Amino acid sequence: MHSTSVRFNVLVTTSLTYLIVLHAFCILYSWLKRLEANPQATVSFGSLVSLKKLPNQLGESAVVTFQLDADLQSMWNLNVKYIYLYLVAEYSSPRFRRNQATVWDRYVERGSSSFSAFPFYNSLGLHNFVDTLRNASMIFRLEADIIPFVGFVFHTTLAETMEIQFPLEYTL
Amino acid sequence: MSHRDVNTRPVVEEKKTTETVLSWKKWLLKRESLLQVLNLLLVFASALVIWKGAIAVSLSESPVVVVLSGSMEPGMRRGDLLVLSNRTKQLRCGDIVVYKVQNREIPIVHRIIEVHDDGNEPLYLTKGDNNFFDDRSLYSPNTFFLRRGDIVGKSIFIVRWVGMVTIIMKEHPFLKLIIVGFLSLTVLLGE
């Protein structure tokens, strides 16, 4: 009755239509779920371990300790593939009014409802070779990117520390 | 009127009617063929209009890109399709961006890990999530940061695996000819 090409054409078109509708449903669902999400997180600055100048004009390096705790249960839904957590240091310097640097990051997989900082991650390095970290007023901000299976990449700020003042001189 | 004229008139008239019908059919066939060709041209023109419209809306020279390597795994895998937007004026740490450098033909999809903004022209440093080192070795010689003009756009939308078609066609160019030829034939010969 109908030729093979017509049948094939209908099959492909129908499958594609169903796929697009399914994707649209997933995107709408995850967008609505995101509005309901209420993640809880705290990040606190521990101490400045060292602030020193690197040799051969490689800039400066700072090592700090921090503690973070996050409950990400409410952020997960059927369309979330990963949650990308990262800690951003934001500060101003003599040359640049806005500096940002990612000092730590972690991909959180499905099934990880909560996340606590392990001692291994508590010390992290902040490098700067364009300016100076001395006397910088710094804020550490815990941010999250929701990476979906399909759809928009959403970003949210989970927590931030109080303003921390770095010393005027390098530490020993 | 002769007896011979009366006998031949219906045959001649029938022959003229047949010729007229045939010429009309030929003309219709040519018209249908022309319509099929115009349909095909309409499909190509529509695709071009949609692409140019996407460029105008996103303000990006390439609003859709395909992830070609595994440097952003596990978040983005080879074959994922990214939709870009270049409307964001102030990029920040954590943004997934696509950038071009002078000595590389293919744009790169990586994440911004540093921003230094003096109020005039921000500087950006990028790194792939799956890479150990930052991207300075990929930049142009004597370039340690990217500028806003190097960035093609920021990734705002992901569709998984769709880009594998592009990767397969890139690795086997003859497949591109076969697929485009097949689709064109479908439109030309379709009912």
UniProtKB/TrEMBL annotation, chain A:
Entry keyword Transmembrane: yes
An individual GO BP term: protein targeting to ER
Localization per record: Endoplasmic reticulum membrane
Bilayer disposition of the protein: Single-pass type II membrane protein
One of the record's GO cellular component terms: signal peptidase complex
Membrane-spanning ranges: 6-32
Main localisation: endoplasmic reticulum
Entry keyword set: Endoplasmic reticulum, Membrane, Signal-anchor, Transmembrane, Transmembrane helix
Pfam entry (one): SPC22
InterPro entries per UniProt: SPC3
Protein name according to UniProt: Signal peptidase complex subunit 3
Source organism of the structure: Galdieria sulphuraria (Red alga)
TrEMBL record, chain B:
Transmembrane region(s): 33-51
Domain of life: Eukaryota
Cellular component, GO, one term: signal peptidase complex
Subcellular location: Endoplasmic reticulum membrane
Domain Peptidase S24/S26A/S26B/S26C: 61-117
Membrane protein topology class: Single-pass type II membrane protein
Pfam families for the chain: Peptidase_S24
Coiled coil: none
Function as written in the Swiss-Prot or TrEMBL entry: Catalytic component of the signal peptidase complex (SPC) which catalyzes the cleavage of N-terminal signal sequences from nascent proteins as they are translocated into the lumen of the endoplasmic reticulum. Specifically cleaves N-terminal signal peptides that contain a hydrophobic alpha-helix (h-region) shorter than 18-20 amino acids.
Protein name: Signal peptidase complex catalytic subunit SEC11
Species this chain originates from: Galdieria sulphuraria (Red alga)
